[in-house]
Specification:
Largest sheet: 2 strands, antiparallel
Strand content: under 5%
Shape: globular
Radius of gyration: 19 Å
Number of helices: 10
Distance between the termini: 34 Å
Structural class: mainly alpha
Number of strands: 2
Order of helices and strands: HHEHHEHHHHHH
Length: 232
């Protein structure tokens, strides 16, 4: 009796939280790069200057904890030990980081806001990582939920596409796929809705669809100009 889009929102958030713990930080492809880019953008929001190529100013606590890119008991031990821990050493130090090849902040905005909030609340490294990842998932879930509400048909298909394991893995990480895929799903749903609706299309609906499409095109051009891979 519940609408399918509400079932979707509940399902993806539950699965996403589960993925957030099972697939620990740094385990998804290229996540070390995305984490460092998110950290740099968070520093920008907090008014912290850049440390230069292959460097980033981080809290001392964040430089001490290590996650491996492969599943390991050490990763889960880090989650268990640090989940409720606040930051102990908040001093900023210059730490090694991946290349500073720029990707625009808007691609990382949900994760950046989550990380920045965690830093302002003096949360530890583990809750900071998990909160930032959960914000990315929440953005993707909301974009897909809004698009699904607009669809006149095919809601089950979109439901299944959105919760595919590969998609969940990317959208529950620091990857910008959460933003890109969410925007793409919303844009496609808006286009289908406008095509199949019986009542006249309002100018505001056209404006929203055009703006959404231009935003997606702008993201593609930005990534292409920087030599980044675009999976949209």
């Amino acid at each position: 009796k519940c609408k399918i889009e509400k079932v979707f929102l509940f399902t993806i958030l539950c699965l996403g939280i589960l993925y957030n713990f099972l697939i620990t930080p740094y385990m998804t492809p290229d996540e070390s790069y995305h984490i460092d880019m998110t950290y740099r953008h968070s520093n920008t929001l907090l008014g912290i200057e850049s440390a230069g190529e292959n460097k980033c100013y981080k809290r001392m606590d964040d430089t001490k904890i290590e996650f491996t890119s492969e599943p390991s008991l050490e990763n889960y031990k880090n989650i268990y030990d640090g989940f409720f821990r606040g930051v102990r050493d908040n001093r900023l130090v210059e730490a090694d980081a991946t290349s500073t090849t720029e990707a625009p902040m808007i691609l990382y905005l949900p994760a950046v806001l989550g990380m920045t909030l965690a830093r302002l609340l003096h949360l530890g490294t583990v809750p900071m990582y998990l909160l930032a990842r959960w914000c990315s998932l929440l953005f993707f879930a909301l974009m897909t939920y809004i698009g699904m509400k607009k669809l006149p048909f095919g809601k089950i298909t979109l439901f299944l596409l959105a919760i595919l394991p590969m998609n969940l893995q990317q959208c529950t990480s620091f990857s910008y796929d959460a933003v890109i895929n969410g925007v793409i799903f919303l844009y496609i749903c808006c286009c289908i809705s406008l095509t199949w609706r019986e009542e006249p299309v309002k100018p505001v609906d056209i404006l929203v669809s055009v703006a959404d499409g231009l935003a997606d095109l702008a993201l593609w051009i930005k990534l292409w100009s920087k030599g980044e891979e675009y999976n949209g």
